[in-house]
Amino acid sequence: MTATARTTRQMASAAATRARRRAGATERGGIDHGQRRKVIVEQLLTDIFQGRLHAGERLVITTLASRFGVSQSPIREALVSLEGVGIVDIEPNRGAVVRRVTESDVKEVCQVRRALECAAVRLACGRTDLTVLQELADAFRSAAESSFPAADGNGQTRRGKAGQSKPRGKSKPRGKSQTSVRKAIDSARQLDSRLHDLIAESCGNRFLKKELGRLKLLFRSFRDVAWDQRSSDSDLARFTEEAREHLAIVEALQTGDRKSASRAMSNHIRSGVKYWSRGLPR
User: Fold this and answer.
1) Alpha-carbon distance 106 to 82, whole Å?
2) CA 121, 122, 127, 128 torsion: positive or negative?
3) 108-277: which CATH number, 1.20.120.530, 1.20.5.440, 3.80.10.10, 3.40.50.1010?
4) pLDDT per residue as tens digits for the range 210-245
5) Domain boundaries in the chain?
6) Looking at domain 3-98, does it have CATH number 1.10.10.10?
7) What is the CA radius of gyration of the chain?
8) What is the pTM of this model?
9) 91-145: per-residue pLDDT in tens?
10) 55: phi then psi, degrees, rounded to nearest 5
11) 217, 38 Cβ separation under 8 angstroms
């Protein structure tokens, strides 16, 4: 087995493990009733973006029901959700068929996300729990000052704390095991989700909150696949950059500065577009 094949297999295994954990899978492999549609959508999105399900491939309800250990109803619900975010087409006499997702699609998704998130963060100013914001500020500040490599303005890579220059490359950062890389990714994922969920909950607009909730599985699948690929080549520069972007959003929320909060959110999402595109199958 080649190194590339091993890496792909490891990524697939890790994604499946996370999905089962989040869904509350039972020891028999079944999915917790309240989480069925969500975990099926998450796993199918991961399979599509990691290239295990290909454009044009038909998604057979009976096959998927057997795979996930559920009835056909949650499979149908999941496929309708995927159609709603433009990832599958449900065609007469063919059922659900995987669409080809392109870099252009990612950019368009990010345009929609930027509009929604900027509106939400403006509305959340003055509505968000200050204690929670301080906890997030401390966490993002710590992440921004971590010892993982961070890209400087010249495109070179430097150490977050020591500021020691290091050429860009694919080698693993010295002293960082794959376990510590995985922990960094999991921590960054949790903080990212916590902040964006807090903003949605605090915006005070139930329609905006619902729309963000409908699309967030798509947003986060792009993110998770791209981050899993970064873990395989140990390119961790984005983590410290993203922590600084998140910190700017939190600090604007703390002061209630709507203009700064919206600008920081817009910059954050714009910066992430090129990284999300890297998660697409080639």
Assistant:
1) 15
2) positive
3) 1.20.120.530
4) 999 988 888 888 888 777 766 544 456 778 889 999
5) 3-98, 108-277
6) yes
7) 19
8) 0.73
9) 887 889 999 888 888 889 889 999 999 999 999 999 999 999 999 999 999 998 8
10) -55, 135
11) yes
